[in-house]
Amino acid sequence: MSLRRTLATARRVLAQLRHDPRTLALLLVVPCALLILLKYVFDGEPLVFDQIGAPLLGIFPMIVMFLVTSVATLRERTTGTLERLLTMPLAKADLLLGYALAFGLVALVQAAAAFGLTIGLLGLHIAGPSWLLFVVALADGLLGTALGLFLSAFAATEFQAVQFLPAFLLPQLLLCGLFAPRASMGAVLHGVSDVLPMSYAVDAMARLTSHSGVPGATLLDLSVVVGCVLLALGLGAATLRRRTA
Questions:
Q1: If you placed Cys at 128, which of 96, 121, 208, 223 could pair as Cys (CB 3.0 to 4.6 Å)?
Q2: 63 with 114: CB under 8 angstroms?
Q3: Which one-letter DSSP state was computed for residue 115?
Q4: b/e code 123-137 from CB counts within 10 Å (16+ = b)
């Protein structure tokens, strides 16, 4: 691994994003637009928005980061860019960490924009510290990035990469506790939800909504999310292929 090569990869990815306004709009504008829409859907029920606004502050960016990262990484293989890069003295870890760093910076900007909008303009009220809400939202965006980098290795086309969204993330959305408490689910579904990273992201956000201070369980949930980010990056480096099949 080389820090210089990792940073060079990150700069290249950021330069590509800078010249792609549609992708930037999807990354930065769409999560904010969805949160605004959510606010006005429950305009007459502010307590409902306070209850689900924080979890969706993490879920919306996670989904968007997953979609963009998986498609962008796959495009590197289908266009031959990845094959050319790996003929150079560039380790797979350098390449993957460069992508993670570039999209991680985007996730930071995305989390800051969504957080500022939700806490400020939309008036979301939480019992816990707002700085921790931002940290969890950022971790959720990084989780979407890491999962996108990992799962892109199993797709041969961009259409297949998009298919991972309903196949991998939507079941997590149903089982994460947003629609029904996980404790009320059957034993099998509850067991499945216990191994899904989105469950811990939603649990952390929900605790910040209803608990003041810094609950130890919230920090534990955050640690699980960060651990899943590192695991997904490690698996992504191990499964990264030079080209599509």
A1: 208
A2: no
A3: H
A4: ebebebeeebbbbbb
